[in-house]
Write a structure and sequence with these properties.
33% strand; disordered N terminus; alpha+beta; eight-stranded mixed beta sheet; 39 strands
C-alpha cells in the first residue's frame, strides 16, 4: 500500500543540516543553444535577440532543442530521491470525486464530474432532480491521452439543443458542435477556427466569434487578426454562415456578443485588448441597426439583463469599484444612466441573475461577499458562507426557484450548495471526501508596506503549531495584472506542501482587481514596476517576520504571474532559493507579435508605441535583464508546446539566455509539456506529473534530500 509523506519539512531541513549530507553541487551540461546575429533598434537603442530562431516553434531545430532540454531536465528530476513519493501522495490526495455546480436547461440538469483521476471531467445530465443520471459527453473517449477537452456553451432558447466546444492539446483554438439534448446525439454541424467565443442563441441558430483560417504551419504562433462575429443556422455548413460584424479598418480588435434572456436584444462588445471595451446593441424584435452605446476603450460596461425596456449593466464609469446601473434602450446617453446599486467601498467583481433576482459578488479584503437583490437594488439578504473564501455560481433562469453555487477556501474543498431563492436557505448538495483534516491548518491575512508605502495584503496558510524560526520552506505566489483578483481557493497540490510543514503565501499585488480599478491601474503600463516591488516586498516581509529565509523561499506564478517571477528573480536574484515561472510573458519587446499578444498592449504598453513605453518595458523585461556572471535562483521554467496564448518562445528564449548568463551551480532548467497548452484542458495525468516535478525540484533545491514516511492513509 502507498505510504504518505507527512514528516514536517522544517524538521527534515534540520535533519538534513545535521545528519544528512546536502545534495552535491555539480556543474550541469546544458544543451548548447546556437546564437544568431539578430538586432532590433528601438528609439535609437540596439537590442540583440540571438535566440530569435526559437520563435519558430515548428522548425526541426527548435523541436530538437526542446527534446534536448527536456532530456537534461528529466534526468535531473528523476534523480531526486523522493520525486515518486510526491507523485504518489498527490495521486492519493486528488483521487476523490469532484462536481461542478449544476445548471438547468429546460427539464434537464447538467454538471461536470470527475471521479478522481479521470484526465477530463465527464459532463452528466439528468431529467429533473430525481431523473436517471446519464453521461452527456465523456471527453476521455475522444483521445487516447486525454488531451481533448470539452466545454458547454449553452442551450438554445427552446432547450432542445446544446452547443459545445472541443479543444485539443490545450490550444485556444476550438471547434463548436451541436448536440440534441433529448436524444444525446450530435448534428453534423462543425464550426472551425473559433477563439474566445460563446454561443448567443437566437431563433434557429446562434451568434459566435471566429478568426479566418490561418496559413498552414502558423496556427499556434501567427498574429491573429479579424476576430469577427457570424450567425450559424442549425443544420447548415459553416461556409453558409452569415457574417454579422467585421471591422476591416481595425483588424486587431476582438468582438463577442450575447443575446438577452428574453431574446429581445443582442449586445456586442469590441475590445482593443484585455482592458476596456466598446458597447453596442441591436433590437432583435425589430431587426434594428447595430447601435453603439459607449465609444472608446477606457472603461468597462457589461450588460447583465434586459428588463422592461432598460438594460441592467455593470460599469466602472465614474465608479472604480464598479456599480450597477439602468440604461434606457431609447435614451442611452451617459447622463441618463441611473444607479441601481451605487459604488461601495468593496469592489464589485461580478453580477449574475436567477429567479428574477440579482446576485452581486463583492470582494471584501479579497474574500467573497454575495448579496441577493431585486431588480430595483433592494437587498434581500446576504448569503452566509462557512468561512472567508471564494464563491461562484448563482446563475439561472428567471423562472428558477433555486440556484446552485460553490464555495471554497485554502483548506475548505470546493463544496456545492443549493440556495432556495424564496427562503434564503442553503442546503448542502455535494461535499468532497478528502483524506486530510482542515482543522489542522490555519490561514490569516496580514498587510505590509511596499516600497512606496502602499499597504499590500498577504494570505498566509500553514499547519498549526509550526515554529516560526526563519527556516520554514515557503512558497510565495502572485499574479498582479489584468484586473484579475486572487482570493482563497482550494488546491490539492498546495495541501501536499502544507501537510508537510510548508507555508503557502498568496499576495494580492497591485495590478489585480481585488481593490477596484485604481488598484489595477497602479500596476499597469508605466507603473508595472509597482507589482514587482510589491512581490519583492512580500518576500522581504516573510523573511523579516521570521517565517522563512532566502534559502527556503520559492516564488511561483503563471502567465502574467510568470512575468512577475521572471522580473523578481532578475531584479533580486539573491532573495530567493527557487523560481518557478510558468508560461510566462518573458520578452516584453515582442509579445504583441504573436497570436493574441497585441491584446495585452492596454495592460503593458508597447515597445513600438513610444520611447517612454519602450524604456519602461526594457527596464523590467525578464529576457533582457539577465546579466552574464550572475548567480540566479534554482529555476524551473515550465511551458507547453501547444500554448498559443503566451507562445512558448517566451520561455524558450528566457531559458536559453538564463543558462548562458547563470554563473552558479544552481540548476536552471526548462520543462516543456508536449501536447500541452497554456493550462486549460490539461489532462489529470499530466497535471500530477508536472506538479510532482515542480514540488520535487522546489524541495530539493531548498536542501531537503529525503522525505519521511508514516502510516498509510486510510482507505
Amino acid at each position: 500500500m502507498k505510504r504518505s509523506i507527512l514528516v514536517p519539512l522544517a524538521a527534515l531541513v534540520a535533519a538534513c543540516t545535521t545528519e544528512t549530507p546536502m545534495k552535491e553541487k555539480v556543474a550541469i551540461a546544458y544543451p548548447k543553444t546556437k546564437k544568431v546575429d539578430t538586432t532590433d533598434v528601438y528609439f535609437g537603442t540596439k537590442v540583440a535577440d540571438p535566440y530569435r530562431w526559437l520563435e519558430n516553434d515548428t522548425a526541426a531545430d527548435t523541436e530538437a532543442w526542446v527534446k534536448a532540454q527536456n532530456k537534461v531536465t528529466q534526468s535531473y528530476l528523476e534523480k531526486i530521491p523522493y520525486r515518486q513519493q510526491i507523485e504518489d501522495r498527490l495521486t492519493e490526495l486528488i483521487n476523490y470525486p469532484r462536481l461542478s455546480s449544476p445548471f438547468r436547461a429546460g427539464d434537464y440538469y447538467f454538471f461536470y464530474k470527475n471521479d478522481g483521476l479521470q484526465n477530463q471531467s465527464v459532463i452528466y445530465y439528468q431529467k429533473g432532480k430525481e431523473g436517471e443520471l446519464q453521461v452527456f459527453i465523456n471527453p476521455n473517449t475522444l483521445s487516447e491521452d486525454g488531451t481533448i477537452s470539452v466545454n458547454l456553451l449553452g442551450a438554445s432558447a427552446d432547450n432542445k439543443f446544446m452547443a459545445y466546444t472541443k479543444s485539443e492539446s490545450g490550444s485556444d483554438w476550438s471547434k463548436i458542435y451541436i448536440r440534441e439534448i433529448a436524444t444525446n446525439t450530435d448534428l453534423e454541424d462543425e464550426l472551425e477556427w473559433v477563439k474566445f467565443s460563446g454561443a448567443g442563441w437566437f431563433k434557429d441558430g446562434f451568434y459566435y466569434s471566429r478568426y479566418p483560417e490561418p496559413e498552414p504551419g502558423t496556427e499556434l504562433s501567427a498574429d491573429n487578426k479579424h476576430h469577427s462575429i457570424y450567425y450559424h443556422k442549425i443544420g447548415t455548413p459553416q461556409s453558409e454562415d452569415e457574417l454579422f460584424y467585421r471591422d476591416d479598418a481595425n483588424p486587431d480588435l476582438y468582438h463577442w456578443c450575447s443575446v438577452t434572456e428574453d431574446d429581445k436584444y443582442l449586445t456586442m462588445y469590441a475590445a482593443s485588448g484585455t482592458d476596456g471595451f466598446e458597447l453596442f446593441f441591436k433590437n432583435l424584435e425589430t431587426d434594428g441597426e447595430l447601435t453603439k452605446i459607449r465609444e472608446g476603450f477606457a472603461n468597462k460596461t457589461t450588460i447583465i439583463d434586459h428588463n422592461n425596456g432598460k438594460f441592467i449593466a455593470l460599469t466602472d464609469i465614474d465608479a472604480p469599484n464598479y456599480r450597477v446601473v439602468s440604461i434606457d434602450t431609447k435614451n442611452f446617453a451617459l447622463e441618463n444612466w441611473q444607479d441601481i446599486v451605487p459604488e461601495r467601498e468593496e469592489t464589485l467583481v461580478n453580477v449574475s441573475t436567477a429567479g428574477g433576482y440579482l446576485f452581486l459578488e463583492y470582494l471584501k479584503s479579497a474574500t467573497s461577499q454575495v448579496f441577493q437583490m431585486d431588480y430595483a437594488g433592494k437587498t434581500i439578504r446576504e448569503i452566509e458562507f462557512p468561512a472567508p473564501g471564494s464563491a461562484s455560481g448563482f446563475s439561472g433562469k428567471k423562472e428558477d426557484g433555486n440556484v446552485f453555487y460553490s464555495f471554497s477556501s485554502f483548506t475548505y474543498p470546493s463544496t456545492i450548495f443549493e440556495l432556495d431563492l424564496a427562503t434564503g436557505e442553503s442546503t448542502l448538495f455535494n461535499k468532497p471526501d478528502l483524506k486530510f483534516n482542515p482543522e489542522d491548518y490555519v490561514s490569516k491575512q496580514v498587510r505590509f508596506k511596499s516600497k512606496d508605502g502602499t499597504e499590500v495584503p498577504l494570505f498566509i496558510v500553514h499547519k498549526k503549531g509550526i515554529e516560526m524560526n526563519g527556516s520554514n520552506p515557503t512558497l510565495l505566489y502572485g499574479y498582479g495584472g489584468f484586473n484579475i483578483s486572487l482570493s482563497p481557493t482550494f488546491s490539492v497540490s498546495n495541501i501536499f506542501f502544507l501537510e508537510n510543514g510548508g507555508i503557502y503565501v498568496l499576495a494580492n499585488l497591485r495590478g489585480g482587481g481585488e481593490f477596484g480599478e485604481e488598484w489595477h491601474k497602479q500596476g499597469m503600463k508605466l507603473d508595472k514596476q509597482n507589482v514587482f516591488d510589491d512581490f519583492i516586498g512580500a518576500a522581504e516581509y516573510l523573511i523579516a517576520e521570521n517565517y522563512t529565509s532566502s534559502e527556503k523561499l520559492a516564488i511561483r506564478g503563471g502567465s502574467n504571474g510568470g512575468l512577475l517571477v521572471g522580473a523578481a528573480m532578475t531584479q533580486r536574484p539573491e532573495l530567493f532559493a527557487v523560481a518557478l515561472p510558468a508560461v510566462g510573458v518573458m520578452d516584453m519587446l515582442r509579445f504583441q507579435k504573436f497570436t493574441v499578444g497585441k491584446g495585452w498592449i492596454p495592460e503593458y504598453g508597447s515597445a513600438e508605441a513610444s520611447k517612454e513605453e519602450f524604456d519602461a518595458l526594457y527596464a523590467y523585461s525578464p529576457l533582457h535583464n539577465l546579466k552574464i556572471g550572475t548567480t540566479y535562483p534554482s529555476t524551473l521554467v515550465t511551458t507547453g508546446d501547444h500554448d498559443d496564448r503566451v507562445v512558448p518562445a517566451h520561455s524558450f528564449k528566457f531559458a536559453a539566455t538564463l543558462q548562458e548568463a547563470h554563473s552558479g551551480t544552481n540548476p536552471v532548467f526548462i520543462r516543456v509539456e508536449t501536447d500541452g497548452g497554456h493550462g486549460a484542458g490539461k489532462p489529470m495525468a499530466k497535471i500530477i506529473e508536472e506538479q510532482a516535478d515542480i514540488w520535487a525540484f522546489t524541495l530539493y533545491e531548498m536542501g531537503i534530500t529525503e522525505l519521511g514516511e508514516t502510516s498509510p492513509v486510510e482507505k
